Structures are given as structure tokens and as C-alpha cells.
Amino acid sequence: MATKTIKVPKMLNGAPTGEVDTIQVEDYGVATWGPKTKHRLLNTHLPRVDAPNKTTGTAIYTHDVKVPGMLHGRLVTSIHAHARITSIDISAAQKIPGVKAVLPIVAAGGEVIYEGQAVAAVAATTPEIALDGARAIVVKYQVLPHVVTVDDALKPGAPTVGRGPGRGGNGQGNQQQVEAAVAACDAVVEAEYRTPILHHCCLETHAVVADFRGGPNATVYVSTQATFGIPGDAQRELGVPVTGVVTHMGGGFGSKGGGIGVVGQWACRLAKQLNTPVKMVNTRREEFLMTGNGPGSLHKFKAGANKNGTLVAISTIQYGMGGIGNGGIAAQPYSYVAQNVFRQSTSVNTHEDSSVPMRAPGHPQACFAMESLMDELAYKIGMDPVEFRKKNLPNNANGTAWHRQLDAGAKAIGWANRNATPGGGAGPLKRGMGCAIGSWGGGGRAQCVVDVKISQDGSVLVTSGSQDLGTGTRTYVRAIVAEELGLDMTAVVEKIGSTAYGNAGGSGGSTTTASLAPAVKDAAYNARIALAKLVAPLLGAASADEVWFDKGQAMGNGKSIPWKQACAAVPAAGLSARGQFVGALSGNGAHGASFAEVEVDTDTGHVRVTKMCHVQDGGLIMNRLTAESQINGGMIQSLGMALFEGRVMDPALGIMLNPAFNDYKLPGAMEMPELIPIIDDGDERNVVIGIAEPANIPGCGAVANAVFNACGVRVRETPITPDKILNGLIELRRAKA
Amino acid sequence: MAVKSNSRNKPGTATGMTRRTVLKGVGLAAVAAPPLLSRVARAADAPGATSVDQPISGSITITLNINDKDHQVAVEPRTTLLSALRDRLDPPITGPKLVCNANTCGACTVIANGRNIYGCSVLAVDMIGKKITTVEGIGTPENLSPVQAAFVEKDAMMCGFCTDGFVTSTTAFLKKNPNPTLDELKQGLKGNFCRCGTYPRIFEAALAAAKVLKASGK
């Protein structure tokens, strides 16, 4: 039964007349979101509740934590890509006044397999003395042969990295048959696409404060995506029960997915040895070299389409470059359907740190390659790139979403006005447009426990151990409870980010909101029902069913009393309600489409994105304001991938040439285009899904395709830097001559 | 030397800045060029040094004026202002953040005698006698400045780690240019990085704050 009647006082000019009126309200007998368009708080633009802290220096991050007696930890890291350590001499370091402990990490005789691998750790009274200590440690290396590029790693006889040659997938499909089908097509594209290793560049580097003082327990603060990943690791090192805390954290993007990391392990060991708290913070250089990367990729495509716009056949051989890690890349043909598919995927290892998840792992890379390929085929058969894409979408809900989003994005960017002939126009400034689509799973799982407490004085507290990466978790946690109880945002307090509160899963796969929000809703609903039972007698209502909370009031039986007054019915110890995951409130499957307009300076090769839009669905959006910010963020990271970012390795020396912001280029203020984030309200699903990663997937492909439309140069390797444009223009001129 | 403004100009490539790393690790006593040293210490053990007029080394207690308050803090000559704030002061001032420690990203922005500077790129001992403002001195949660209030309203933040630096830079910038175009604003804020992607809303917040400040006659 959804609609019920509540008896409220009849009002005239703001005063009760003494008579009784009735209102219709929706109550489903179970935690439910209710109609999408009828939310008072959810699905609206809610300011972030932690914004006043984040703008005034009062939000405390792990980097900011200071506890009494705290020492500063520092790592020593390998300067070679591949070497054997012949000796580590810590004696000079130990003698420095203020250095309290020095621990070798790799023993003499041990092997290091990437530049930046931790080899020793120091704890000292000040950061400067810790640096002196680190510098005074003498590490002697026997340099060994290395490989740090995919081309070198694939050469026969290349040095073995770590576990041995990269894990290969056996091909799926019949390669010969597929390639024959390709050859028979009206239009054939045979091309290689590459993306380099990328970096998360979290502004807050990996950091841990191990607050252990030799006592029966410890608190460990970690800049992490998973509050509950802290205690297991830390307890192993410290040997005592650990409370894990992450009140605020300065960005993860996948790199801080679990555990306490190398800095955590060694901060804990130093703290354990000294019975003194130790803070260890990765330097920016270490952040680039040793905290995990987003894998590079190499795609070898052979594909064919017919003049009628059918993607007939595609053969893809794909390499993921993840250093010593897996480097997984999403399977092709990514979003599209082809009649004949052969795919083979191999992970190629090099002497670099391990790949870790990076905002939609494997998808931006696969999407850039596939969307570039689709674009090349579209131009070859002379079909509108949007129309060609539509012709090859799956015939299901995913396809339906993409049809809708391609239309919305095309409208927002002004697709009808795009450059008719790639490279056409007098120049030197040439504009063009491109598009791309992507998808992601998201979805929730049963992992969160949420508690709501209503006190006799009317205060409301909701607690969850969950972390907030800047995604806005705090805000919707509060909003769900406030909306359920008929209160304003200011009447509810939320506390998150500690293992002292209810369990929560780590943030990965865009699953946090879809897992946590349903549990918060369940807790809020349970709290409302329990409170209604207590308040019914105050109102003279026959049962809890006749009680309703709205506008800061408790109403029923023709009466209405303020919330605080109603809470006098709460016992002195307070009313506690617990919530858990409700599958019916969560769903999965997110889709997005990006469109970009660029201006290419054909004299200098510079590419400037002038306008970019991204259409994203996500079921029921908790907070439109923060969702739009996420979509903006995804577009900007995609822009960075397309035009600026990439690890550069020196193949001869085996070292990274740009482990700093001056040479690993992040998009900055001067690079900002007009950005149009669009929430796809055509998505009717009334469940929470998750949007953080899908917003980051198709933008790079859209920019690359826009570049081609603008100047006729097809750049198949990101980042699309001026040299690639200029070389491409030279080749075009040669081909014409 | 003027810095060319074009879309590819990146902070950190501006010329004319003396790299802090030249002095760090060398020790002031070893630096040979007196004109570089406009300030040197009095006796190294004089507490609360309020100016510096002899070569110094080791630990020295100095006075820094931060957010209208004098603080005594023990530093080494090579201690940056940022580190003095975050690691040496008790209680620490943690609004300015340590992100790159290399004069590129602006998360450590503070205002010194009205000029926004990178806290990681100046020595604490060089800040004696200057009026330093950090984000904490610009406003509080209970009493947000117009810039801070605009950041809150426009959602000009996500993880928040760059936000203090942006608030500080925007505050100083709007004092110098109270009526900026979007392009002027981008130029003015290009010394601050964000990874989460909050730039567009920072611009909206800054332009909205400019209107509020103009209307209130500040």
C-alpha cells in the first residue's frame, strides 16, 4: 500500500483553526526511494556538507595529522630499474642526532625490479633530519639488464621481469576467418593505437600516521579508499587491535584501493620498534615511481565495415603494459557489436612499478582505441560518425541508453555544425568535433552497516565507517536521513571514516554509493518507524502508521508538534536503528557519451579543447550538484589523457624522465574548455548505480576524433602533442604531392 | 623577464625564480654571494629571533606573524615556510598543503605582505617580519569570507586538497583584480592545480565572489 492518509491540523494564515485536515503521503512499508521526481533533498543540488571545512583549512587529512611525540618517516628508494643490492650501510645514518631508527627493506643480495622500489626506511624527529638520514644510507647496486618499453619487452631474448614473460590470453575466435572477413569488406582499417602509462596524481600523496605508543591498541590514519582495509594490515605489523581512520582524503582515483601500502607497512614497523607514533608521507617523486600506475596499452586492429554502415569484422591483438603488474585492458570491440570478432589480450611486464586500478581500469585505453577505429571506418565509408556508431550498438538496454545519449550529446555540442571535411578550411586555426561512448558496471553489494541515533534532545546522528574520496558521500549520507525524517540538512549530523563505525566496503568500481546509500536508507527508514511508534501516544494516534514526519514536525491524529518536542518520547539512552544493504534500491550498468570540440593550430601543432560535454546516466542520482562535479572531473581527466599526460621512460637508463608536475603535464586552468556535464534524465531506472568511473571513459576518444575532424591528422598515440600534429600534417602534404 | 601567456604556459616554467633547492642542503653559511643574503641571524640561540643578520645553522627559534598573531617556532635555515607551518608549529597550521614541494602546484599557497606565494618555495627565516595569511585567516566555517562562501555554493571542490590553495590564490587575486574577465581569472589562477577537476566551478565561484565583493564595497 503506497498512499496513506495522515490527519493534520487545518491551518489558516499559518495558524491552526482547531479543525482537522488530511494529507496523502506515500509510505511503502519498507525502505524505498519513492518516485524520482518527488524528492525534497535527493536528486537536487545539495551543497557539500564538508565544504565549509574544505574551504577554511579545517578539514583534516592524513597529511595534517599530528600526534604527541610523532616522528617523521622517510623511505630510500632504488635508483635503478633492475639491480641487485650488494650492500646497505646504515651506520652513518644511525649516528645522525635526531635519527631514531633505520631499517633496511631489501637485504644485501636482494633484487630490485623497478626504479622507486623501497629499499630502506628511516624515522627521525623532523622531516629535515629524516631526509639527512635517508641521504646518509649508502646503498651499493650491481646494475642488471632492464626493459622499460613494450617494444623492448616484446623482443626475443628480452630480460625477464619478475614472474617471467607476460601472461597471455589465448585468442578468442578464429583469427584467420575473421581476417578474411575483414579483407572482403568495402572499407578496411588496419591500425595500431597506443596509450602510455598514466598517473593518478592524487594531490595528497600516499600517507600513513601509525599512532602506536607501546600500549594495548593503536590508531592508524591512512589516506585510503578503504577505511576497513586499514586494521588487518596494521594489526599484522603492530600486534595490537587497530582503529583505522580516514576523515578526509585527498584523492585516490584507484591508487589507494586497499591496505596501508608500503608507507603504511614501514611507518608501522618503525612505530612498533620505537613505541612512538610515526608519520610517513610519500614524496611527489615517490608517488610517481612506486605507488602504482594506470597501465599503458598497445592495440593492433584489423577491421572492416560495409558501405551500409555495418561493422562486419574486427581482429584485435591487445597488450597491456602494467610494469610488474597485470595491466588489464578492457576487451574489444568495447561498446560495439560485430559479426566476426577475434580478440587476444596479453599483459607485458617491464621493470616499472605495478599497475593498480585507475579510474575505470582498462576502459579509457580500450575506448580510445576502439572509438578511434570506429571513427576511421565511418570516415572511410563516408558516414556520419554518430550514425555509424548507432548502427552497431547492441540491441538491448545498453544500446537504447547510448542512442539517447549520442543524441543528447550531439545536440549539446552542436554536432550539426561540425566541420564537413576533415582538415578543410584555410587555417591556420581549424576546428572540429568528435564523439565516443563508454560504459561501466558499478552496482552495490551487501557490505555496509549504518547506524542512526535519535537523541532525546532531538539531535540525529548517522554513522558509517565509509570513506569519502571527494565524491560527496558525507552529503548524501546526511541527506537520505534528513529526507526520511522530514528534517533539514542542518538537523542531522553524519560521522564517517572510522572503523569505530559500521562496516563499509572500499571505494572501487564505483560501487560505494550503490552499496552505502541503500543501507543508509534502510537505517533511516527503521529509525522513522521506531520513532513513529514512540511518538504515536504523544499525538494520541492509534498506531505508528498514523504518524508522519515532515517540515521538522511530527504529525498525526489532527495534531502537529515540533520535532524536538516529539523526541521527548525517546528514551534517555536514545533511539538506535541499524540499516543494511537493500538490493532492490541498487542497480548496475552505467553508460556515457562524450563530445568534444577542438581547435588545432596547424602552424604550431597545439590542440586546444574549446568545448566538451558528457552525458552520463546513473539511475537515481543522490546529489545532482556533486554528480555534475564528478562528470566535469571525468571530462578533465580525459582531456589530460588525450593531450598532455604520459609517463616517459628512458629506454637506455631505465628511469622515468618526468616524475614531477613540471613535466608530467596535468590539465590546468589555462587548458579548461567550456564544460557541459549532462545528467541523463532519460534513464528511468530508480535505483542507485554509481557514476565516478564511467564519466572518465569516452572523453579521450572524443578529443582524438575531434582532432581528426579539425585538421585531418589521425593521431593514434596519446598524448596528442604538437609534434604528432605537425608530423601528421607533413605526411598529409607528402601524400598529396 | 615577461612570461608569455598562451595556452601551453605552465606554472613552474616562469623564469626569474631562485630555486630553493640551491640553498637547501648547502647551508646558508656556505653561500658565497652576500647580496643574496639580505637577512642573516643574530646569535643562533637568541629565542624568538625577529630578524636575521648573521649566518645561521642548526636550529633557531624565530618569530613568524601568521594570521595576525606572532608565533615562536623552532626551524632550521633550510626549513620552508610550509614545513614551519605544518610540521614545526604546535598546534600546526595545516590549511596550506604539501603536494609537490617543487614550486609547481600551488597547494601550499599563502599570502605574504599581500602577495600570494608558494610556501614550499620560501624559507621560514626569510619570512621573518612579513605579514603572512593562510586560508585559516581568510575565514572560518562559522564566518566564511565571500570567496569561501562562493566556493561552497558553487561546489568548487571535490576531495578538497587543492581547495585551500585556490581559496587563498583567489582571495589575493581578486584584491589585485576585482573585476576580472574569465581569461584574466584563468591567468591569475594558473599557478594552482586540481586533479579532481574542479576548475570550472572554481571559476564560477571566483566570478560570483567578485560580484559580492564589489557590491559590498570591499
Mean pLDDT of chain A equals 96
- Multimer state: heterodimer
Biggest interface: A-B, 63 and 69 residues
CATH fold-level topology of the largest domain in chain B: Ubiquitin-like (UB roll)
CATH class of the largest domain in chain B: Alpha Beta
The dominant shape of chain B is elongated
* Class computed from helices, strands and strand pairing of chain A: alpha+beta
* Spatial ordering of strands, largest sheet of chain A: 5-7-3-13-10-11-12
**Rg of chain B from C-alpha positions?**
18 Å
Q: Helix share of residues of chain B?
A: 25-40%
DSSP summary: helix tally of chain B? 6
Largest sheet of chain B: 5 strands, mixed
Estimate the mean pLDDT confidence of chain B. Answer: 83
- Numbering strands along the chain, what is their spatial order in the largest sheet of chain B? 2-1-5-3-4
* Number of separate strands of chain A: 27
The total count of strands of chain B amounts to 5
Number of helices of chain A: 17
Characterize the structure shown.
The complex is a heterodimer of chains A (737) and B (218). Chain A has 737 residues and is α+β, with helices and mostly antiparallel strands. Chain A has 3 domains: 3-59 and 446-585, Aldehyde oxidase/xanthine dehydrogenase, molybdopterin binding domain (Aldehyde Oxidoreductase, domain 4), CATH 3.30.365.10; 62-145 and 206-281, Aldehyde Oxidoreductase, domain 3, CATH 3.90.1170.50; 296-442 and 587-736, Aldehyde oxidase/xanthine dehydrogenase, molybdopterin binding domain (Aldehyde Oxidoreductase, domain 4, 2-Layer Sandwich), CATH 3.30.365.10. In chain A, the strands form 7 sheets. Chain A has a 7-stranded mixed β-sheet, sandwiched between helices. A 4-stranded mixed β-sheet of chain A has the order 9-14-15-16, with helices on both faces. In chain A, helix 6 (230-238) packs parallel to helix 7 and helix 12 (473-484) packs parallel to helix 13 (512-539). Chain B has 218 residues and is of the alpha+beta class. Chain B has 2 domains: 33-137, Ubiquitin-like (UB roll), CATH 3.10.20.30; 146-215, DNA polymerase, domain 1, CATH 1.10.150. Chain B is built from 6 helices and 5 strands. Chain B has helices spanning 20-23, 81-88, 146-154, 163-176, 182-189, 199-215; strands spanning 60-66, 69-75, 109-112, 115-118, 131-133. Chain B has a 5-stranded mixed β-sheet, sandwiched between helices. Chain B starts with 19 loop residues before the first helix and ends with a helix.
